Amino acid sequence: MIKFLLNQKVREETQLSPNMTVLNYLRTQTNKTGTKEGCGSGDCGACTVVLGELVNGQLQYRSVNSCLTFVSALHGKQLITVEDLQNTDKSLHPVQQALVEFHGSQCGYCTPGFIMSMFALSKNRPQANKEDILESLAGNLCRCTGYRPIIDAAMSLSTDKPILDQFAELELRTIEKLKSISNEPATLNYKNLSSFSPTTTDELAELLLTYPDARLLAGGTDLALEVTQFQREIKQLISVNLVADMKVLEETDSDIIIGANLPISDCYEVISKHYPDFGELLHRFASLQVRNQGTLGGNIANASPIGDAPPLLIALNANITLRRGKESRTIPIEDYFISYKVTAQQPSEFIEKIIIPMPEAHKEFRAYKLSKRLDDDISAVCGAFNLELDNGVVSSMRIAFGGMAATPKRAAACEQALLGKKWNVATVKAAMITLENDFEPLSDFRASKEYRSQTAANMLYRFFIEQQNVNNQIETRVTSYV
User: Fold this and answer.
1) Going by fewer Cβ within 10 Å, which terminus of the chain is more open, N or C?
2) 3-class DSSP state of 224
3) Residue 187 CB neighbour total at 10 angstroms
4) What is the pTM of this model?
5) Given the DSSP bridges, would you call strands 2-6 and 78-80 parallel, antiparallel or unpaired?
6) For the structural domain made of 371-480, what CATH number should be given?
7) Which residues pair with 384 in a beta bridge?
8) Which residues, other chains included, contact 56 with Cβ-Cβ below 8 Å and sequence gap of 6+?
9) DSSP string of 186-223, one letter each residue
10) What's the confidence (pLDDT) of residue 308?
11) pLDDT given for residue 373 in this prediction
12) Closest by alpha carbon to 409, among 341, 477, 338?
């Protein structure tokens, strides 16, 4: 049984397929048809709903794509749809009213999704500026309005004080209801399908020993596509959604430790503080709806050759901790990827945490993502560079690329061409040529192999130019003070 709040009403569900998405649940089980299906793959935002959940005892709202969210993820949370926003006196919610007043809807198909993204923004950042609004709405597509009236409507909601609506009035009651159900384990069984939602890492480890063939579900933003796009059945699911001790974020003197179950949107602030380029890439990682559910652990475990985070983690010499039963082992992340979609992860083993070294003052890290769109797109090529110089000579260099091979991979020949050499144009241009020995990229609909090879080499040259410019600026500032 799973138990959750649908707006303010407690729902207990026992006869649901674990493969059912929240979108289909709303439209077929509750007659809430305001939530629309546009793409079924998390790209358009028409199906956006908001989940309320307890974080450190406080109610936090997150916009998510209901087409990529399995019903098991609702356990212990509050599900809010566009129908729920209407005030108790039947008047429109301020977010809905703003869309009306600024003529932000034409055909109306995408409007419920925009409203729900704006609602979440109004709760999380009532003083949102235009940049906040653009980030919040980047995962919602509209083919009619040209976005300006929608953005204007969102801007009109920016205020010094949170919107006083029925959700604010009922907040304490909502928190009490969620507290009563949030720590309960959950299961769903339907015909030959089953899902489990453990609440601790120990429970998760035991379940994976019992069901070694079960699919592990974190955000589900990729796994759900097997159901929605490929029409497959997933017989056994184990969701880590409720495993709180895998949502840790810890900064030590030497490392940033990130639980494999922590949503990407919760990693951004800390990672960006220490590695601005990594933070910028996370800012472009899919849409806010996806970042609110997707995890770094899932991005790694997916083992996609074009996953955004792995090349950066490899360049930073990050480690991951794998656990099976009561035993754990920590390996360099570069050793995790064996071949296309094949990893070092053993049966019943799972990623428990990611360990990123703290930046060192004498090292410089940069990352570049090339994609057809700036926002909400998968990279054609992603490159990461971690450089250490000693009196102008390359003493250490780690280079990793995504989109250039069957796995995220280091550029070993290129690194060797740079080590021990003067960091200058001639050295860098010679190293650019050696990338041909490191990679034989494929052509696909994102990019040709020639384009990938050329842009990967250009990324190295760009890194050199930017690093030189930064150092020159520093030297100029120092000289001006002498």
Assistant:
1) C
2) coil
3) 15
4) 0.93
5) parallel
6) 3.30.390.50
7) 367, 400
8) none
9) EEEEETTEEEEE-SSHHHHHHHHHH-TTPEEESS-TTT
10) 93
11) 83
12) 338
Q: Domain 1-182 is classified in which CATH homologous superfamily?
A: Beta-grasp domain (3.10.20.30)
Break the chain into its structural domains and give their ranges: 1-182, 244-357, 371-480
CA angle, corner 15, sides to 38 and 64, nearest 5?
30
Tell me the DSSP string of 83-124: GGGS-TTSPPPHHHHHHHHTT--SS-SSHHHHHHHHHHHHHH
Report how far residue 138's alpha carbon sits from residue 135's, in angstroms, rounded to the nearest whole number.
Answer: 5
Which pLDDT score, from 0 to 100, does residue 184 have? Answer: 74
Position 481 scores a pLDDT of 33
For the chain, 482 residues long, the average pLDDT of each consecutive 10-residue run is 95 94 97 95 95 93 97 95 92 96 95 97 95 95 92 94 90 94 83 94 96 93 92 94 93 97 95 96 92 95 95 98 98 98 97 97 95 86 97 97 97 98 97 97 95 97 91 44 33
| CATH number for the domain whose boundaries are 244-357 | 3.30.465.10
Helices 130-137, 148-156: crossing angle, 10 deg rounding: 120
**Structure tokens of 59?**
């109610």
